[in-house]
Amino acid sequence: MFRHKVFSGINIAGLAIGIAACMLILLFIQREFSFEKNHHKAGRIYRVLTIDRALGTHNQRVGITMPPLGPVLPETFPEVEEALRLTGGGKNLLKYGDRPGIYAKNMRSADANFFDFFDFKLLEGKREKALSEPFSIVLTQSLAKQLFGNEEPLGKTIQTGSGNDVKVAGILQDLPDNSHLDFDALLSISTSISVAKANQPPNATQPIWLENWNMVAMPTYVLLKDGVSPEGLDEKFTKLCRDHGVGDNFSITLQPLLNVHLHSTDIIFDGVANKSDIKSIYIFSAIALLILLIAIVNYMNLSTARSTRRAKEVGMRKVVGSLRSQLLSQFMGESLITTFIALLIALPIAEFTLPLLNHLVGASMSLHLFQNYIMIIFMISALFLVGILAGIYPALVLSNFKPVTVLKGNFSSGRKGTALRKALVVFQFTLSIALIGLTVVVQRQMYYVQHKDLGYDREQVMVFDMTDRKMGEKIETFRKELAKSGSFVSVAVSSNVPGRTFGRTGVRPEGASDQDIWIWSNFFVSPETIPTLGMKMAQGRNFSREIASDTSDAVIINEIAVKQLGWDDPLNKRIYFGRSDSTGAQVIGVVKDFHFIGMHQPIEPVVIFPLSRFPGGVLTARIQAGRIPEALQYAEQKWHEIYPNYPFSYSFLDDEFNNLYLQDINTAKIVNIFSVLAIFIACLGLFSLSSHSTAMRIKEIGVRKVMGASTGLIIRLLVLDFIRWVLLANIFAWPLAWFAATTWLNSFAYRITLEPLPFLLASIIALAIAVVTVLSQSWRAAVVNPAKALRYE
User: Fold this and answer.
1) Is the backbone of residue 499 left (phi > 0), alpha (psi -120 to 50) or beta?
2) Domain coordinates of the chain in residue numbers?
3) Do residues 156 and 167 make contact, with C-beta atoms less than 8 angstroms apart?
4) What is the mean pLDDT of residues 338-351?
5) Do residues 552 and 612 touch, judged by C-beta distance below 8 A?
6) Taking the complete model, does pTM exceed 0.70, yes or no?
7) Residue 95 and residue 158 in contact, taking contact as beta carbons nearer than 8 Å
């Protein structure tokens, strides 16, 4: 090793980087598969999903179901041990005494048996009683610290933004980052029932939403009894829904809790912000394997290429009595020692780069080698597998030399060895070009997502959320105050904003068959919303405050709704809501299609109602160009005047949009990093191989120069000898990259058209890197004085 420092350094560096990359990817994959495994009943817990097959939808799985379904399941089916319901959650004000209020980022409600399902650690309070009483609440440790400081929180009464007094019944350890659930405050669901009944009109004939079988509104989980298979339960649960009058378009399916994180990208309305995709795991696993293979190939290539330098050593060992088995042991031992040193170097590399990976994926992973038996098994396996795979062929080649031949000086590495090395170069660059091609495709898709015309303008738009009914009552006052400022272009009130989850409603378009079931997304807006969000009208007009009928007898639909209905003239058509609706509303306009959900799902029909039909909970304000600081200052001043008890809170619409694709952006960054590592390791091998090759041809170069060959001609000769094999690698790399890119792009409903250009670019990049790598060695060989190259001593 010390005698051949460059050769040893390249081998060790390639293996160390490859092993470190695999360790990091393995750690990431471990994290992805660790979701929900801290719950000891996780294998028996299933999420109840609804499949909506109504016209206007795309037969998607929906992460919510009918609110009354949960309690009925264990009563009806002996296979079900328990059922649990949660509410969707959202930001809510909490206030303790005279202290300033703070926001719970995501306050949800849950059934009393929440802690029978999930093993989150309750630091204070009793698990079986914490959520059993109305107006009781469980807080996470961090939120309790913000509210109470150093005071003991248990048993204290706090007030919600809606004015309800709730009693702290438990303090929960902050949720781990490998959970699909996200909340910092948990109310008892009996609180929601009490509040809903208290707000119900005295003569109401409809049940409250928590008891309404005609709504799809609630995340629900079931715990199956030991030994019970979920097979056949989908049909049984669906039939139960039919018995309670649920429409034929809805059916029930079950999803294992352990599948939620990696198998939910198609599920909407589930409120899971940190879901990942099993395809990403396949991609990262493949990249880890490819990087390690490239490092192993480097070792094999360099070792066999240098076989001529060790031929006389092997010959002498055999002459003095070495057996082939002893020589095999020697060379395999060298390979294992080299791999062991690489493994030792890989540990600090992985430790040093782990914070970068944590930052990319928003996690808090750590190596903890002595606590991670899977990582220990991987390291031991890597030592022997990599050591054996990297050393077996060189050992067989070296130990097979015939002493008589090599000691006479007649030995040459042979055509077989040369052919193998060329094949390995082709293999390395096949993988490298495929990775670069995939990286280019990923980057182009993410650029397309971030720059595609969304049908609305997300730039310079502030979003203010009304977190409770009290805030909502003053939202119009706040809108008018902001509209007075010249720093805002326009200010609007709506039920939501694009990028968040829109609600859905049943519709009956004019002329449609009574047998058809149509369900569209809905959006409630003030007349200012469409211009504020930069949306465009395709036909007709926007709502107007000057036209009285616009408050009750007018709706706007989008272009895809018109297309699905086949309407040539949509204006003045009517849409009815529910089978008992005989008046409906007139279509006064058609808005151009806009992406109100992410680009993983296709645009669906949407019906836009005037805000008078529904209280607005979101205020949007478009800021004049270059006046953001002024707008922020004015908005904060007016906020404190109108909402003195609420902390100033806002977001920007473009930030919310970027968060929709955070997982995809992080995937792209990780692919970039490891693709660079792969090409770097491949170039390490190519550098060393070209160095060895030119050294072996030094006398040939000397003869060529004596015979009149120019330096440029010799450089071209040496470079082309390698470059043709890199070019050959494209034949194998393009189909591989095309398959991987197609598989990844299929998760997007809106995606780039796959063209040869990204793969051509990958080929050019790989070729340029190879040329630069080989050129440095070729130049050194070409400028050597031929007298020095041809002398014998």
Assistant:
1) left
2) 1-35+280-412, 468-645
3) yes
4) 91
5) yes
6) yes
7) yes
